[in-house]
Structures are given as C-alpha cells and as structure tokens.
Design brief:
Blueprint: E1 2-20, E2 26-46, E3 51-55, H1 67-79, E4 84-90, H2 101-116, H3 123-133, H4 137-142, E5 145-150, E6 154-158, E7 165-170, H5 177-183, H6 195-204, H7 207-212, E8 215-216, H8 219-225, H9 227-239, E9 243-246, E10 253-257, H10 260-270, E11 276-281
Parallel strand pairs: 1-8, 3-4
Antiparallel strand pairs: 1-2, 2-4, 2-5, 5-6, 7-10, 7-11, 9-10
Helix pairs in contact: 1-2, 1-3, 2-3, 8-9
This protein binds adenosine-5'-triphosphate.
The site of adenosine-5'-triphosphate has 21 residues, from helix 1 and helix 2.
Length: 285
C-alpha cells in the first residue's frame, strides 16, 4: 500500500517580529501563501516497524535528520502506532532557500502517514504536532494562505490572493535561518510590515496593494551578510515587477507579476545572472 502527497513551497508576503519571548523565540506575525513549486512525497507501508528514507537530492539528509523522517517518527511516538514506512522524496524545491522545503516535506509526511497508517487525526491535531518539528510546519500542514502568529503555530485562514505569477531567483548560497534570527534586534527594526493592511488587501483581492505592501524584517540582516541577495532584488526591480521581496530568511527573492509575458521576460532577464530561476503560479488555496 502507498500514498502520495504534494509538498508545496511557501513565500512570505509579510514577515514581522513583534518581540523576543522569554523562551528565546520571537513572537512572529507572517502572512504566507503556497506556490506551485512542490516536492512529491511517496509513502510505502513497510512490513516491519522501520522508518526508511530515500531522496532524489544529495543535498538533504537521508537519515533521522531529515524533517520528513522526524515527522513520521513523531507521529509514531505520539500515537503509539507500531507500523513502518518507506519515505521517497522527489525534491524540486531548492534547499535552505527560505521556501520551507523541509517543513513542507515534514507536513506532507504527517498528512500522508495519517492516511497510510489510518490514524484518523484531524488537521488541527496534525498542525499541533507540526509545531514540534519547526515553526513553518504548522502552516505547511494548513497550506493555502494564512496569517501565522506566535512561533508560527497560531494560524488564521485567509482567502487565496488574486491569481498571478511568482518569479523566484535563488542565488547559489544557503542561509541558515537560526543565524539570521539570532542577529535580529526587535527594538531596532526600522520598518514593520503593515500586516493589517495586507490582510485587508487579501480579503478584497486587491492585487496592487498586496504587491506594494510586501515586507520582511529579515531582509536587512540577510542583505548585510550576503550582499548578492540584495543585488538580485535590485536587479528584479530594475527589470520591473509589481512587488519584490526576499522569502523567509532568504536567499530566494521573489517577484509578483500579473501576465505570462512579463513573467517570461523577467525569467529571461534573470537567467545568466542567477542559475536557479523559476516562474510559477501562486496556489494560495
Ligand atoms: P524555512 O523557510 O522553513 O526556514 P528553508 O527553505 O530555508 O526553510 P529547508 O529547505 O527547509 O530551508 O532546509 C533547511 C535545512 O534543513 C537544510 O540544511 C537541510 O539539510 C535540512 N533538511 C532536513 N530535511 C530536509 C528536507 N526534507 N528537505 C530540505 N531540507 C531538509
């Protein structure tokens, strides 16, 4: 028996930190939406109780350090189920890119093992479990579009943003998310995103306001450490897009454009400057 799950990447339309909590984490506020760039996770029921994993990518761990492996293990520990699984990951989302590839693989494994092992857990229960694995996992279980608060586990569903193209450019560097958050000084943030305005714009399907108000408080930190990320943002702005922003802690920079023609033009202008360039649809629902 086997089940297959899609694990889409996310982009942050806004990313804000409100304060540093006593547990050392930041109190976050982020609007996230899924895009049509996805890994595929195939899960095969094993005859024994082992969890095994293979992946099409040499860039991710193939053992218990893989977030998909950790998701299956967590599910087994929390439910006491005595079943095994073989996890096969077809990797398409760039690794350590700010697109939550690992988190989405973990979320897809939670959803998939819930079906494969006939556990009958609700989405709410899977979201709660996801929080044990990482801050982006609850959103990835939820998918679609949502405002995430707390450490990322308090989710309010939002409607899908208007249909548009997302052009992504990933420079050939990996940015460790924890490093960037460690350098964040909340009291020194100059421009907080206007999250309320963004929520309203999404409810109204106001593409122009969405594109204009995208903001991420981690940008200045990543830009200082990795100036090439800022250069990509500047380059995209020069070529023209309705909105440009770094996703998560980077280094991927994404641009929103409305028409196929503009997406194609932007992709062509970025090739040669950046090796990993994609144009995908916003999924959002
Ligand atoms: P986020 O946006 O949630 O911070 P990210 O896109 O920056 O995530 P990931 O692609 O999730 O980063 O990878 C972060 C780290 O997690 C990498 O160093 C990678 O080795 C490890 N990792 C573990 N499991 C996976 C997986 N299934 N896919 C990708 N990376 C994984």
């Amino acid at each position: 028996m086997f089940v297959s799950e899609k694990a889409p990447a996310k982009i942050n339309l806004t990313l804000d930190a409100l304060c540093k909590r006593t547990d050392g984490y930041h109190e976050l506020e982020s609007i996230m939406t899924t895009i049509d760039l996805a890994d595929r996770i195939d899960l095969f029921l094993r005859n024994d109780q082992k969890i095994t994993l293979e992946s099409s990518s040499g860039l991710v761990p193939h053992d218990e350090k893989n977030l998909a492996y950790r998701a299956a293990l967590l599910l087994r520990e929390k439910t006491g189920i005595r079943k095994g699984v073989h996890i096969r990951i077809y990797k398409h989302i760039p690794v350590a890119a700010g697109l939550a590839g690992g988190s989405s693989d973990a979320a897809a494994t939670l959803r998939g093992c819930n079906r494969l092992w006939r556990l009958g857990l609700t989405d709410k229960e899977l979201i709660e479990l996801g929080a044990y694995i990482g801050s982006d996992v609850p959103f990835c279980v939820h998918a679609g579009t949502a405002l995430a608060k707390g450490r990322g586990e308090i989710l309010s569903t939002l409607p899908s943003p208007p249909l548009c193209w997302v052009v992504l450019a990933k420079p050939p560097i990996s940015v460790p998310t924890a490093d960037i958050f460690q350098r964040l000084k909340v009291d020194q943030i100059q421009d907080h995103p206007d999250t309320k305005k963004m929520v309203q714009a999404i409810h109204e399907g106001d593409y122009g306001t969405i594109a204009k108000n995208m903001a991420n408080i981690l940008e200045p930190i990543t830009f200082e450490l990795y100036p090439e990320v800022q250069k990509i943002k500047e380059r995209i702005k020069k070529f023209g897009a309705d909105g440009v922003l770094m996703s998560g802690s980077g280094p991927t920079v994404f641009a929103l454009v409305k028409t196929d023609a503009r997406a194609k033009r932007l992709v062509n202008s970025l090739r040669g400057f950046c090796r990993q360039v994609f144009a995908v649809r916003i999924l959002g629902a």
